[in-house]
Amino acid sequence: MTVELFDTHFHLSREDSVGDLTAAAAAAGVTRLIAVAGNLEDSERLPGIVAARDGMYCTAGVHPHEAEEFAGDLTPFRRLLRLPPAVAVGEIGLDYYYRHAAPAAQREVFAAFLSLSSELRLPAVIHCRDAYDDCLAMLNEHTTRPYHAFEIHSYTGTPEWAETIAALGGYFSVNGIISFQKANNVRAALSAIPLERLLLETDSPYLAPVPHRGKRNQPAYLIDVAKKVAECKHLSLEEVAAVTTRNAKHFFQVP
């Protein structure tokens, strides 16, 4: 059985062997991957790595955990996001669960990067945890319709929030959490996500899916996420792979 999968969100550390990761991914049918940045250092490092490999792309942005480290200058990010491998602004957003940065600082940085996303007409990859009220309010305030695209990555919100986000035109990505034994809430939310707005991700090296729990996650394990989504959506693996890959190509505007 041959499927084509698109890992729309993984993190590439300096210790990772890009060749080993991509070879294992390709063997599992994962033919396209997006390496996601969370700070200026990552944003500057990733383009040179992914540009040399077919089917790999990157993002540039500041994660909410690092909001207080952001100096306020968007100039380097604007330059990096104009490079060919860059396909989205991210990972940006709000996280009121961990609060590694003060909420006010998170909101300030989120607003700046949402505006940059609108300016460059690039989709936004959004991290939102325990902050849906503020996140949705800021999306309404700082993005431009009808062309502006955004996704909530690693979606763990409620079905009701999923309906609200979908009404705004948002996309959703799901990962290994969907397979966790106690993640009934995430599986319930999946039922409310329109299939045409669904993306797959690993968020590796975190959140390895069953049967790899406890291991370091990698893009090759996306096949197990796809299998669980197929089970939950009562679809075949081939259908899930085809639709989510098509969605990702459209959302990120890649060939």
Layout of secondary structure:
Elements: E1 5-10, H1 18-27, E2 30-35, H2 40-50, E3 56-60, H3 75-80, E4 86-95, H4 103-120, E5 124-129, H5 132-142, E6 150-152, H6 159-167, E7 171-174, H7 184-190, E8 198-200, H8 222-233, H9 237-252
Helix pairs in contact: 4-5, 8-9
Summarize the structure.
The chain is an alpha/beta fold and 255 residues long.
Largest beta-sheet details: 8 strands, parallel
| Elements, N to C (H/E) | EHEHEHEHEHEHEHEHH
Uncertain spans: none
Binned, the helix content reads 25-40%
The termini sit apart by: 23 Å
Which key phrases capture this entry?
alpha/beta; 255 residues; single chain; eight-stranded parallel beta sheet; 8 strands
Structural write-up:
By secondary structure, the protein is of the alpha/beta class. It contains nine helices and eight strands. The protein has helices spanning 18-27, 40-50, 75-80, 103-120, 132-142, 159-167, 184-190, 222-233, 237-252, and strands at 5-10, 30-35, 56-60, 86-95, 124-129, 150-152, 171-174, 198-200. Strands 1-2-3-4-5-6-7-8 form an eight-stranded parallel β-sheet. The chain starts with a strand and ends with a helix. The model has no long low-confidence stretch (mean pLDDT 96).
